[in-house]
């Protein structure tokens, strides 16, 4: 299944390079969101708490603008039927998830680098905790966004439904990730952040399991 | 000849309160051409989608067997070739890239000679390196047949196979149907008399309302 999922990922990757379905909207959103925050803050110095919170706000809304494309683009172009005829549901989900994980990592690395360069208060004091939280947080974000994208791709009002469905599902992940980012900014040790890390890891495992169990029903009409 | 069989047991389909058809039973073995006819809205496309495992029946079962072993739904797509007006290939890729991608995702080796042969038979070889988005509707329809045949499936399902095709395209399709009917089961859903003339048995959906 892994080889087939990688083949599907490669198809999506080459398709994305040719159509720029998700990359353009993600890049534009990152630039606009960070610019608006910079203009709004002006000469004020952001507190660590506010910088960490705003970091995840940008990540959340950027994910809203781009990650649904994995399934919505197939549905809009009418190629879902083709995909159903060449791959098993688990392969489709794995391929799309792989694509979204890589997209989320690229997107959030850019956001983190821009934050570090543009906001004085975004100084990471515990880098290993930040990386750990960043990795598990991104995986959770990609898994949730992929399964929500699969659900809303079949619906009519996709644009509205995606944030409405995403908010309650992503809330526990975002809140805990904000807390972990604050810990990384104020230098809390990994030992002291164990509870929050366990929550995010559990969230990832639960979402991944539920997604694979439900995808077959979502994917078929 | 394949040892493939497809069997329908008491198939019923409803959309909400609307009954599409009920009580459909059939069994097709090994090879041959079988037709599904009926007026517009009688459920021809719905029935072929159920046979292909793309949607579920409301009641009843479809059983696919290969050499007496039942095929699990996860593996069904590798045994089926499907052509339908709703099928859309990846327009941002060329015909050759599409066929290569389909083989890779199916995890089967890309048989370049067979792909060339099919492209020649459907008069598309000279356009194999052009993007699908530059194709006419008839060329896209012919490309769908290549998509359906490239992985040597035991069951071929053609929903309105000759729509959008000119005489030359129709002849290519009829030749392929005649050729493949010796080794595969072919199911044709159509109202076109010329298409149905190829069938040895026809299921008329008017009688299952």
Task: Write a brief structural summary.
The complex is a heterodimer of chains A (221) and B (209). Chain A is mainly α and 221 residues long. Chain A has helices at residues 2-19, 23-41, 48-66, 69-77, 80-86, 89-118, 127-153, 158-186, 194-219.
Q: What are its keywords?
A:
heterodimer, A: 221 residues, mainly alpha, 9 helices, globular, B: 209 residues, alpha/beta, Rossmann fold, five-stranded parallel β-sheet, four-stranded antiparallel β-sheet, 29% helix, 28% strand
Description:
- The complex is a heterodimer of chains A (221) and B (209).
- In chain A, helix 7 packs antiparallel against helix 8 (158-186).
- Chain A is built from nine helices and no strands.
- Chain A has helices at residues 2-19, 23-41, 48-66, 69-77, 80-86, 89-118, 127-153, 158-186, 194-219.
- Chain A has one domain.
- The two termini of chain A are 23 Å apart.
- Chain A is globular and about 55 Å long.
- Chain B is α/β, with parallel strands linked by helices and 209 residues long.
- Chain B has a single domain (4-208), classed as 3-Layer(aba) Sandwich (Rossmann fold).
- Helix content of chain B is 29%, strand content 28%.
- Chain B has helices at 44-51, 95-106, 112-121, 137-149, 167-180, 193-196; strands at residues 4-15, 18-29, 32-37, 59-66, 69-70, 80-83, 155-159, 185-189, 201-204.
- Chain B is globular and about 45 Å long.
- The interface between A and B is medium-sized, with 26 and 26 residues.
CATH class of chain B: Alpha Beta
Greatest chain-chain contact: A-B, 26 and 26 residues
Kindly state the mean pLDDT of chain A as a whole number?
A: 90
- How large is the share of residues in beta strands of chain B? 25-35%
Structural class of chain A, please? Answer: mainly alpha
Terminal Cα separation of chain A, in Å? Answer: 23 Å
In angstroms, what is the radius of gyration of chain B? 17 Å
CATH architecture assignment of chain B: 3-Layer(aba) Sandwich
Instruction: Report the count of strand segments of chain A.
Output: 0
Summarize model confidence as the mean pLDDT of chain B.
91
SSE-based structural type of chain B? alpha/beta
What fraction, in percent, of the residue positions of chain A are helical?
Answer: over 70%
The CATH H-level homologous superfamily of chain B: P-loop containing nucleotide triphosphate hydrolases
Strand content of chain A: under 5%
**What's the total helix number of chain B?**
6
What can be said about the biggest beta sheet of chain A? none
In terms of per-residue confidence, which ranges of chain A show pLDDT below 50 for 5 or more consecutive residues? Answer: none
Describe the oligomeric state of these chains in a short phrase: heterodimer
For the biggest sheet of chain B, the summary is: 5 strands, parallel
């Amino acid at each position: 299944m892994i080889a087939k999922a990688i083949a599907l990922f490669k198809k999506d990757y080459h398709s994305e390079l040719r159509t720029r379905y998700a990359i353009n909207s993600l890049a534009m959103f990152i630039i606009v969101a960070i610019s608006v925050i910079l203009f709004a803050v002006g000469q004020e110095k952001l507190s660590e708490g506010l910088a960490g919170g705003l970091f995840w706000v940008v990540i959340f809304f950027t994910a809203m603008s781009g990650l649904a494309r994995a399934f919505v683009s197939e549905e809009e172009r009418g190629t879902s039927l083709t995909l159903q005829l060449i791959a098993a549901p688990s392969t489709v989900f794995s391929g799309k998830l792989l694509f979204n994980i890589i997209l989320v990592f690229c997107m959030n690395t850019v956001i983190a680098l821009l934050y570090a360069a543009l906001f004085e208060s975004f100084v990471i004091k515990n880098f290993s905790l930040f990386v750990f939280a960043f990795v598990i947080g991104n995986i959770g974000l990609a898994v949730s966004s992929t399964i929500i994208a699969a659900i809303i791709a079949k619906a009519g009002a996709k644009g509205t439904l995606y944030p409405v469905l995403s908010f309650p599902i992503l809330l526990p992940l975002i809140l805990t990730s904000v807390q972990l980012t604050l810990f990384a900014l104020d230098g809390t040790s990994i030992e002291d952040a164990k509870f929050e890390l366990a929550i995010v890891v559990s969230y990832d495992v639960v979402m991944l399991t539920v997604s694979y169990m439900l995808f077959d029903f979502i994917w078929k009409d | 000849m394949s040892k493939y069989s497809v069997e329908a047991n008491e198939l019923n389909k409803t959309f909400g309160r609307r009954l599409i058809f009920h009580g459909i039973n059939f069994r097709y073995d090994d090879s041959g051409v079988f037709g599904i006819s009926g007026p517009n809205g009688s459920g021809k496309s719905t029935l072929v989608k159920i046979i292909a495992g793309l949607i579920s029946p409301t009641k009843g079962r479809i059983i696919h067997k290969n050499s007496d072993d039942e095929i699990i739904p996860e593996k069904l797509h590798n045994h089926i070739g499907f052509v339908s007006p709703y099928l859309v290939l990846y327009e941002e890729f060329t015909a050759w890239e599409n066929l290569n991608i389909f083989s890779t995702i199916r995890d089967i080796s890309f048989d370049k000679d067979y792909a060339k042969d099919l492209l020649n038979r459907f008069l598309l070889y000279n356009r194999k390196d052009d993007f699908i988005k530059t194709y006419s509707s008839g060329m896209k329809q012919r490309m769908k047949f290549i998509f359906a045949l490239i992985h040597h499936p035991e069951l071929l399902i053609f929903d309105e196979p000759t729509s959008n095709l000119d005489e030359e395209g129709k002849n290519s399709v009829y030749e392929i149907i005649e050729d493949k009917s010796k080794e595969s089961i072919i199911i044709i859903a159509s109202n076109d008399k010329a298409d149905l003339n190829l069938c040895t048995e026809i299921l008329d959906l008017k009688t299952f309302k």
